[in-house]
Write a structure and sequence with these properties.
Mean pLDDT: 92
Number of strands: 7
Structural class: mainly alpha
Length: about 280
């Protein structure tokens, strides 16, 4: 019996991908909003935190100074505590979008700080369940914060709130997973006023960086984000390529004009630490 169980487990391990993105599945309670609301949410503490500890590398990849930021973790804890008291259903959609993006990114940074030093966020293996541990690792399934009486994980925020409500592929350039392969951690806090600017800037920066898309000969290599979340970008290679063409500049734009299929994808899970 034990041998058969081990054989089945081995089959699962070899048959399933090392990491698979959850589907977008709306959690209905978070769909409520007030279109007439003029209320705003203060994200200045998170904005200041980003400006102190986020920096841009010469290679075009934003990094975070986790070692120095640990000394001010209380500031981040205070900001997140304030967010737990926000009655989010009373706000308009623009304020809600900024709220959820900032919450996701601040929670990710705090999670890394709580276990730092680590080589990768995937080493913070706190998600519940055996399969979560075996197939992905990482903290994404763990309940990390209570908002409006509900315990939320990073997966809840991304896949049950952000993706199904806004249905905007540019969200993948906004939420940050603390990895070098991820789109850059935004340089400032999202607000209702700057969200469109930051989403567009994030998309253009990532697409035109080699970790987003690169062409060698006739082979297009893309970030695994475009594989994991292909449905968000249209559902097939042609739609992903059309998205890339929308933001590509210079030689990449010229190369993409003749590309019709994606040859491969890649992703670097190493921590986006300034020490790297």
């Amino acid at each position: 019996m034990m041998a058969r169980a081990l054989a089945l487990l081995l089959l699962l391990l070899t048959a399933l991908p090392a990491w698979a993105a959850p589907k977008a599945d709306l959690w209905e309670r978070w769909a409520a909003y007030d279109p007439a609301s003029a209320l705003s949410i203060d994200h200045r503490d998170w904005d200041d935190f980003l400006k102190r500890y986020r920096s841009m590398g010469a290679d075009g990849i934003a990094r975070f100074d986790y070692a120095r930021a640990r000394a001010e973790r209380a500031v981040l804890d205070f900001y997140l505590a304030e967010l737990t008291m926000v009655p989010i259903a009373r706000f308009n959609r623009a304020e809600q979008l900024a709220f959820w993006i900032n919450l996701y990114n601040a929670l990710t940074i705090r999670t890394v700080l709580s276990r730092y030093p680590v080589e990768s966020i995937r080493d913070i293996d706190i998600s519940p369940g055996l399969l979560a541990s075996l197939f992905s690792g990482g903290p994404w399934g763990a309940k990390l914060i209570r908002i409006d009486g509900a315990e939320l994980s990073l997966d809840d925020i991304e896949h049950r709130i952000l993706r199904p409500i806004w249905r905007d592929p540019r969200l993948h350039y906004a939420v940050n997973c603390a990895a070098l392969g991820c789109p850059n951690l935004p340089p400032e806090a999202f607000t209702a006023e700057n969200t469109e600017k930051l989403l567009e800037a994030g998309a253009r920066a990532y697409v035109n960086h080699p970790r987003g898309a690169s062409v060698t000969g006739d082979r297009l290599i893309v970030s695994s984000i475009y594989d994991w979340f292909q449905e968000d970008f249209g559902g097939d290679d042609a739609s992903v390529i059309a998205h890339l063409r929308r933001y590509a500049d210079g030689p990449l734009a010229d190369d993409l004009a003749r590309i019709t299929t994606i040859a491969d994808d890649r992703y670097d899970w190493a921590l986006n630490d300034v020490k790297r």
